[in-house]
Input
Amino acid sequence: MDRVALRGLKARGHHGVFPKEREEGQTFIVDLVLGLDTRAAAADDDLAKTVHYGIVAEEVVAVVAGDPVDLIETLAERIAQTCLKHEGVHEVEVCVHKPDAPIAVPFDDVTVTITRSRV
Output
């Protein structure tokens, strides 16, 4: 399976279990790896035969900016399902970063990574 990766998609969301996170929001960063077969697109040089990663990026940002959830695990699942709606995408790896998570000790990042595929 071929891979198309989008790294560092940024959007402001209001996800989290604490009221301050819901009220103020914070920046979330998403990395995606889409699994698909690009041979037909490459052979015909045809965008319609692959995934339009610009559209996927816009949809993922809309999910992050959309309805709030408590857990980034839930957010990652919503993002994965959005990606799998694209006909050519057979598998997706989603990594959601929450660099401003409310943690009382110094840290660089919090991430949740999931992999989902068509069944």
Q: What stands out?
A: The beta strands are 2-13, 26-36, 91-97, 111-117. The chain is about 30% helix and 30% strand. The CA atoms of residues 68 and 90 lie 27 Å apart. The chain has a mean pLDDT of 97.
